[in-house]
Amino acid sequence: MPVSPAYSAAQMRLLDRYLLRELLIPLGYCLGGFLIFWIAFDLFSELGAFQQEKLKAVEIAEYYLLLTPKLLQDIVLPVALLLALLYVLTNHARHHELTAMRAAGLSLWRLCVPYLFVGIFFSLFLFCLNELWLPNSPELAEQIRKRHASGPTGPTDRQWRRDLKFRNDGDDRFWRIRNYNVETGEMVEPYVEWRLPDGSHRQLVAERGVLSNGVWTFFNVRRSVPNPSPDSPKPWEQTNVLAVAEFSETPEQIKSEIKISQLSSIKAAKKVQLSIAEILDYNRLHPRLRQSTRAMLDTQLYAHLAGPWTCLVVVLIAIPFGAPSGRRNVFVGVAASIFICFAYFVLQRFGMALGTGGYLPPLVATWLPNAIFGGAAIWLTTQVR
């Protein structure tokens, strides 16, 4: 009796839900176990410091919540996904479930659709985490640890950056700010120097500056004006309030300038430190960068795009080693896949270092590990019998 397409589709949906449920349960255990182990280990080592900083239990929980994305992004989520998928696949293979499904006419790729979906989902999740949460979470966590500090290191003082200097190469403008509030964008004693299209220079000195309705407004301002005679002293005009619409610098661009100027090439070579928005803001301020800085930022940018796909590559690596029938040694397959994933993680870090140092094009340095190990895993899956 022929089977209707609707019945076949319903059966496939049922099978997909079964495979997905069997994966998500051990994945939850792996993630929870890794996080509990890391938090417990770090808590015991930092407990004395927390007591000195007078942190409450709720604040400690908030601190670790902010650090969780960094831990997930580093290695926990890919490794947890690898171990959970290996456990599920070897369990299915040991009970000959995969063999029965393939004997019913289903290809191995069709059986792995739920796993590939999970890999893609977590890859996109990591990308959003890296862009929206991770760039600011370490700084916010550090603010929690210093929440009860008093004196010169108190909360108000930590919002200010002293002696900030940067150049907007695109508009040929140089800024020097005595104190800058990174939270509000307020400036104390800003000095701005820029060049006009006719080649003449202008200068502005103010007591204070704020961004109001998208326009920089300065108070108690002294501004240089065109000099009618080259031999005479430079004339200045003074006003109480001055709005300068031509200053296009935004607080976001200034924050990216602060963060990237403090980022060393050694830290950048280890892992992603910047969001895409921060890199683009910095590039708008500096369209002409030194080769070393350009290599570092381009590597950060491409690593930000390539890194999250680690979850999908890990799924592809696990399939050919966990899916073969139970006649093969399960331990050998699991150990081989873990070793290959370890080599994959090492090559990722090595590629970051080569790209940051300018030894490889950033696009190649960041995407090559994904291409090599993902392509090899796909080929190995086609050889599974």
Describe this structure in words.
The chain is of the alpha+beta class and 385 residues long. It folds into two domains: 5-145 and 307-382, no CATH class; 172-247, no CATH class. It is built from 14 helices and six strands. A six-stranded antiparallel sheet has the order 1-2-3-4-5-6. Helix 1 runs parallel beside helix 5, helix 2 (57-94) packs across helix 13 and helix 5 packs antiparallel against helix 12. Residues 151-155 have low confidence and may be disordered.
In short:
The chain contains 14 helices and 6 strands.
SSE layout and pairings?
Elements: H1 5-52, H2 57-94, H3 97-103, H4 108-111, H5 113-133, H6 137-145, H7 155-158, E1 160-168, E2 173-181, E3 187-195, E4 201-212, E5 215-224, E6 236-244, H8 251-261, H9 265-270, H10 276-285, H11 291-306, H12 310-322, H13 330-356, H14 362-382
Antiparallel strand pairs: 1-2, 2-3, 3-4, 4-5, 5-6
Helix pairs in contact: 1-2, 1-5, 2-5, 2-6, 2-12, 2-13, 5-12, 8-10, 11-14, 12-13, 12-14, 13-14
Spans of at least 5 consecutive residues whose pLDDT stays below 50 are 151-155
Query: How many E strands?
Result: 6
Distance between the termini: 30 Å
User: How many independent structural domains?
Assistant: 2
> How is the largest sheet built, in terms of strand order?
1-2-3-4-5-6
Report the C-alpha radius of gyration, rounded. 28 Å
Would you list the SSEs in sequence order as H and E?
A: HHHHHHHEEEEEEHHHHHHH
The geometry reads as elongated
Assign a percent range to the helix content. 55-70%
**Helix tally?**
14
Fraction in beta strands: 15-25%
Strand count, sense and barrel status of the largest sheet are: 6 strands, antiparallel
**What's the quaternary structure here?**
single chain
Q: Mean pLDDT across all residues, rounded? A: 83
Class from secondary-structure proportions: alpha+beta
